[in-house]
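debug: dumping io for the single-chain case to check the tokenizer round-trip. Nothing else runs in this session.
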Amino acid sequence: MTEQYTALYEEHKRLGASFTDFGGWQMPLKYSSELAEHHAVRKAAGLFDLSHMGEVEVTGPDAAAFLDYALTGRLSAVAVGRAKYSLITNADGGIIDDLISYRLGEDEYLVVPNAGNAAVVAAELAARAEGFDVAVQDKTAETSLVAVQGPEAEAILLDLVPADFRDAVTGMKYYAAAPVELTIGGSSHTLLVARTGYTGEDGFEIYVPNDDAAALWQALLAAGEGHGLVPAGLACRDSLRLEAGMPLYGNELSLEVDPYAAGLGGVVALSKDSDFVGREALAAKKQQTPARKLVGLKGSGRRSARSHYPVLKDGETIGEVTSGAPSPTLGYPVALAYVDASHAELGTTLDVDLRGKPEPFEVVQLPFYKRDK
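debug: decoded output
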């Protein structure tokens, strides 16, 4: 696979980032200390380059009906200016990707798939569009995405927003989006700003043409100087999303996993009138108890579980860890794991095999961390 670089790659190099491959993209893993970056997002703010994510425009008179068919959610019920988390599944109910879709107009949506799945999702949407009056355009290659996450995110963003647009930012609800005018490098730019996030904190995502991405990045860093903003890499993004109990495709989600086992049955709209890809298989799966369920695990000791470590009950393997790490915010190890349904109840005590040594963990309610409103 050819290495891909975001429009902000040189900015990351100048900041001394360590890089890692993620979905074929060379992305900043950390800039200094992933622990310091994690705490900065929880206490102040972090600036993330998410330009590896996909952006697929769906437009046309049948856009709403088409997405009702292509995805598991009821996208036709989403109000203009709002967003919805949904899934795209195959005919067998396996998860191709989890994604966020923004309704930007009556007949206009922006679908945002994960980095490694962007091309697959764009191709799948294009194939499913046959018979619908829609245009599906993959805008990933020309679009950058920058996120500011943390308690200070709103204040930082407002530093770039003229007075006439401040209410559009302060009044923006969670899972909403709107065009917002930003002053970048002395000039005005109207960009799509969304209030979603993948860290468990308040925050904003800004969609920007590649040519303007570096100027936006620099402007946000300058605006954040008095607010504790730091550039943040994928390492802390992973620990933040784990604390927030959010699944990661390739870890918790895959073609081998169905939404009910993953605890995402709520995003499957079996009640919608229209047919959708995977409906029959998912309706059958809903009537069955999954063999294994995704659970949250809290460690009693100091050692952390890691992906693929076996989960044990009375010495017998009953599951597998999908993500695990020490929680910098909470001070104890946390993990996500698929375990046999009979051992998935809250309060169940289990062990994780940490390289030959069983360590005690307890099944707990997700998310592990929830911010104060």
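debug: round-trip ok. The mean pLDDT is 97.
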